[in-house]
Structures are given as C-alpha cells and as structure tokens.
C-alpha cells in the first residue's frame, strides 16, 4: 500500500470525559468517513468511535502529556458510559463489514447504520439496538422502538453480543400492536 492510499492516523485528547480531535486535516478526514460530531473547532468522538480508531491504529489518545492505551481509555469511559465496550464490539463488527455507523438518537437506539456507499447521500436504512447476552431486555422497550411512527421505512436490528464478544443480529418487526397485548 503506498503512502497516498494509506488512511491517515491522528491524535485526540481526552478532556473532561470527551474525546476531542483538534487537527483540522484529520478532523476533515474523519467527518468525511462518518465519524464524530463537529463542535466549533473540534470533532467530538463517541467512545466506541475512538476505541475503534485506536484498535485500527488510526488514532492515538492523550490525556495531559500521557498517551493512553485502549485499556486506559476504556477504563476512563466506563464510569460515565457503562455500555461503551458492548457498543464498541458492535460498532467494530459493523464498520469491519463496510457500514458507516453513527450514534443513535433517543428511545434506546444505539446506532444508525447506512447502506454501504450511501452515507451522506441517503438516510440511514437501519436502526440498531445493542444488548449483551444474558442481560434482560424489557419487551415494552422493544415494542416502543418497533412502532412504525418511530422508525418509518427503516429496518430495526437487535445486535446481541455473546460472552466471547461475537455479535449476532436479529431483524425485529412489528408483528402486533401494544393494544393487542392489552386484550
């Protein structure tokens, strides 16, 4: 692989629990690839994004003057985001399959997932809910997310991370309404 085709790597800083990319060239590269949220002159990376980029050798994270390891960053994120490791495993699996994945919004959604090659051109096709195997999930929570007015033309996927860290996906559909449950 020549130097022109090799993806760049960059540096981020862990400040007040947030992972900030300050370099404008690397920030632009990440935005183009579907990473982070721009805030002023910074790009703020979600925990799973930062862990993924670190695991791929594309990001080094510093806190003050000390470079952090993947384990260091994970341990610093867990107190404020206990599910960061589960989301990282799902995120990594989806990115490795060629999807652009963005943090979900409200109502228990972990990710918005775009069809390959459509990021920035079309809306997300999939909504992803992540869970850890053995962790209870309330059916009411799944029903709330599967309402057609919530996800309209999107497909809903349940990503289950097993004890070995492997991810299995299940497609969810609205087979019945909440009012039918009350009957």
Low-confidence stretches: 1-5, 176-183
- Average residue pLDDT: 83
Strand order of the largest sheet: 3-4-2-1-5-6
* Structural Rg: 18 Å
Shape, per Cα inertia axes: globular
How would you describe what is shown here?
Helix 2 packs across helix 4. 28% of the residues are buried. The protein folds into two domains: 10-77, MutS, DNA mismatch repair protein, domain I (3-Layer(aba) Sandwich); 84-182, 3-Layer(aba) Sandwich (Trna Endonuclease, Chain: A, domain 1), CATH 3.40.1350.150. The longest helix is centred in the middle third of the chain and has 13 residues, at 84-96. It is α+β, with helices and mostly antiparallel strands and 183 residues long. Strand 1 (10-15) and strand 2 form a beta hairpin. It has helices at 24-32, 47-55, 70-77, 84-96, 139-146, 148-151, 178-182; strands at 10-15, 18-21, 37-39, 42-45, 59-63, 66-68, 100-103, 111-114, 126-132, 155-161, 167-172.
Key features?
alpha+beta; MutS, DNA mismatch repair protein, domain I; Trna Endonuclease, Chain: A, domain 1; six-stranded mixed β-sheet; five-stranded mixed β-sheet; 7 helices; 29% strand; disordered C terminus
